[in-house]
Amino acid sequence: MDDEDEDSFAARSDKWARKLAWLADADRDKAEERVDRLAGDRELAADLRSSGFAGRNYEAFANEIARYGWAVIRGWIYKGQIATEVKRKGFGALEPEPRRGAMIEEAESLADETVVLALTGFRDKVLLPGKWDPAKGASLRTYFVGQCLLQFSNVYKTWRRQELRSYVEPWQSDIDRELDDFEDGSAESTPGPDEGAALREELRRAFGKITDPRARAAFYLSATHGYTHDEIGQKLGITGKAVESVLARARLQVKEGRETA
Question: pLDDT band for position 84 (50/70/90)?
Fold first, then answer.
């Protein structure tokens, strides 16, 4: 993907994200109105506590506050604001998403999982122990969104690991198999003895120094198949420029390894 195509893609992605964010804001506003109509927070919490935060009334409350939390989290993802909110709340910095737009594509499922976990945490760690204090000014909605941000931090970390594996792991078996084939000379297109030995040594040296799975896969595809940066990027779900950067860092690691050997 050249610079012009990448800029065009980025513009389309931004326009799409803005439209989704607007829709998410509308959903959030509707959910906020429904929660507010239930009752004042103090009276509502007292009523729910009297029933042990269980039963029909609590289920109605949980459904409405879940809709609100879901709309807020989804909206922040669409706006590219979620990482800022997580950090502002004190739950740490989120690692960059594996590829641009990946989180937006999964916004609804990420919000789903976050809210499910947040409902349990909110009931067990906030409502039942009586940690919510209306005198401190935070509404039940605000408290619940805080619980959502806490849960999102963990949900995102797990999702990010799965995303990285989804486009790196398929190549790991190829790496292992081709290295074995080089060892016993059974590779389908085995290079000459000297060339094959040099390639084996290059890969062994590289994999001994490169720890990032994505960098290992990129290095393998470049060294064994001669793919261009754009071709590697298509296979790994990243841009050609990102591949160039990944390979540059990988080769620097290998070079530093030689110098310190």
Answer: very high
